[in-house]
Amino acid sequence: MKSAKEKMLAGEPFLDQGAELFQERQQAKVILQQYNSLDPTRIKARNQLLKGLFAKTGSRFFIEPPFRCDYGYNIEIGENFYANYNLCILDGAAVIIGDDVMIAPNVSLFTAGHPIDPTLRVAGWEFSKPIRIGHKVWIGGNTVVNPGVQIGDNSVIGSGSVVTKDIPANVIAAGNPCRVIREITERDKQYYYKDESYAQ
């Protein structure tokens, strides 16, 4: 019989009623308490803590404290990763982030979900689905990315978005629910912020 952890990692419904997952979350909290309370100048020490917690990191990354996650061992970040304040990752399933990704403040990546049926939900059933974020993605502040979502390379997610479905590569997407607004084109290289004459 599979354990709750094995079911969680396999993306199957599970009941988190044992000690294993609870203890692993507690262990991550201890590490993150150290991370979030370190002197701001101790960047190398902070990064060493995350290298020990995450499944994979690049050689260059910077996550502004405070930062929160459930386990850490399901998180992979690529080279030149930057996340601003209050990044929250519920990583019951894999969260795989590519190279050159920028994340603004107050962004939440949620792999965890619960049943729609109230009886099953109250009974404690849950599930986790992976999140994948491609290379050179920029995610605006106060965005939520839901379980199972993939965001393609180079795309920009506007502030305040709730991303419930996959977003393709090379687009600007925003809203609740998040929808594609337009493709990113060569014309965007001419404007630092945005071309007000460009149809939105």
UniProtKB/TrEMBL annotation:
It comes from the Bacteria. Gene3D superfamilies: Hexapeptide repeat proteins. One of its GO terms (molecular function) is galactoside O-acetyltransferase activity. Residues 5-59 form the Maltose/galactoside acetyltransferase domain. SMART domains: Mac. PROSITE patterns: HEXAPEP_TRANSFERASES. Keywords: Acyltransferase, Repeat, Transferase. Its EC number is 2.3.1.-. Pfam families: Hexapep (PF00132), Mac (PF12464). The keyword Acyltransferase applies. InterPro entries: Hexapep (IPR001451), Hexapep_transf_CS (IPR018357), LacA-like (IPR039369), Mac_dom (IPR024688), Trimer_LpxA-like_sf (IPR011004). Belongs to the transferase hexapeptide repeat family. This is Acetyltransferase. It comes from Sphingobacterium humi.
